[in-house]
Specification:
The protein is of the alpha/beta class. The protein has helices spanning 2-6, 16-20, 22-37, 77-99, 123-139, 157-177, 201-216, 218-222, 229-240, 257-276, 299-315, 321-326, 346-356, 362-373, 381-400; strands at 9-14, 42-47, 145-151, 185-189, 245-253, 281-289, 335-337, 344-345, 378-379. It is globular and about 70 Å long.
């Protein structure tokens, strides 16, 4: 267990038995996959036999050798020994990168994790979240924190949440524990937020809280158990106490008369939960997707509709530490409004390439930006992220595994 928690490189020898082993799947793989997601570890897997790896969590990681030519398929010990030697060299190169013996860009591990493709732009949101998160913990210790994130459908709200979870929240918890083991972080996505068309406000409240209970204790929900804040607090004591932080993510599409009131009620629900149980810390993200503009609607009308949404969000949230102090009696459950998500610019992508040192020359950087943007100056994050990940993967193949 200690080795799993401190490892920086994990070499997996993948066979059909490996993929079907309950012990490996339930006990050994989860901490390794979690560390890799946080960019704290590099996973190298060696295909020993033909396997359906595409349908498993390791399928998204780069194999050390071609999965279509696994070790066991190579004829003769000479061919296998040659392949094993090449595998060893690749493992050593990655290990040396972690040890700082090889001059990869600093920090070298940035290039190896999938989170790096989600690190373009969004610095302002990360900076504001970090300040709010720290302030909220100091002034409202144990109280759930709720964050409102507004943007268009393609602005990748969830990528920002993943980034904040793995970087800011994880770092804060590990710093608090001073290197000691902690319960970890659970990231839970909840079914889509109810809409006015789903029923009355009371019916929407029931739908919302039902989804929360189902996400954490289906048995309690299915047996017709109590769906109050006190019942959820008791559920926390039984099933969630081992976690240091639980991150909850909701998606709110559109904006109608019920959303504003439902959010206010939801904040009160979490305040009531805290009054009974202060563990774990809940961090709730409400990802607000702006309504899709109707055809032939002017840009001015679209901006006006968005301003109305932001105005209502500001009424139920805090935008500064000073405001939190002055309005503390409104609701003891801190609710913060992060900066609005916007499209990614050409300069954002060029800065990302430079910071990660994926390319050394200005001409190469300009060429990559041109491939991504063409004639456009901005694009939605949803279009940008897959292309950034291809740059990351290409770097790994050419610089690390070559």
């Amino acid at each position: 267990e200690s080795a799993l928690n401190t490892a920086k490189v994990a070499v997996l020898l993948v066979t059909p038995n490996f993929l079907t082993s309950d012990f490996i799947v339930k006990n050994e793989l989860p901490p390794l996959l979690g560390a890799a997601e946080r960019d704290d570890l590099t996973i190298l897997w060696v295909p020993v036999h033909h396997t359906p790896y595409e349908d498993t969590p390791i399928g998204k990681y780069q194999p050390v050798t071609d999965p279509e030519k696994p070790l066991a398929s190579l004829k003769g010990s000479s061919a296998q020994n040659k392949e094993l030697l090449e595998i060893s060299r690749k493992i050593i190169r990655v290990a040396e990168a972690w040890n700082g013996k090889r001059s990869l860009a600093s920090p070298s591990k940035k290039h190896l994790g999938m989170l790096v493709s989600k690190m373009c732009d969004r610095r302002l949101q990360q900076f504001v979240f970090t300040r709010f998160f720290k302030f909220g913990r100091n002034s409202h210790n144990g109280y759930p924190q709720v964050y409102l994130v507004a943007g268009e459908e393609g602005d990748c709200h969830s990528s920002l949440v993943e980034r904040l979870t793995h970087i800011t929240i994880t770092s804060a918890i590990e710093k608090e524990q001073n290197g000691k083991p902690h319960g970890g972080i659970r990231h839970q996505k909840i079914a889509e937020w109810p809409r006015a068309s789903d029923g009355t406000l009371d019916e929407c409240k029931l739908l919302l809280i039902s989804e929360v209970f189902k996400a954490f204790d289906w048995t309690h929900f299915n047996s017709g158990g109590d769906l109050t804040a006190s019942a959820f607090a008791e559920l926390c004591k039984k099933t969630l106490q081992l976690h240091s932080v639980v991150v909850i993510e909701h998606i709110i599409r559109g904006w109608d008369g019920s959303v504003h009131d439902l959010i206010k009620w939801y904040l009160q629900f979490w305040a009531e939960v805290r009054a009974i149980s202060d563990k774990p810390l809940f961090v709730v993200f409400l990802n607000i997707i702006y309504p899709e503009p109707r055809r032939f609607v002017s840009k001015k009308s679209i901006m006006s509709a968005r301003q109305r949404v932001l105005k209502e969000l500001k009424e139920i949230s805090y935008t500064s530490e000073a405001e939190l102090k002055s309005r503390i009696l409104d609701n003891p459950c801190p609710c913060f409004l992060l900066n609005e998500l916007t499209h990614v610019t050409r300069d954002d992508v060029k800065n990302w390439i430079i910071e990660n040192e994926f390319y050394d020359f200005i001409g190469e950087i300009e060429e990559q930006a041109e491939k991504i943007f063409g004639d456009a100056e901005t694009k939605p994050m949803a279009e940008i992220e897959p292309k950034l990940d291809m740059i990351r993967i290409r770097y790994i193949r050419e610089k690390i595994y070559s």
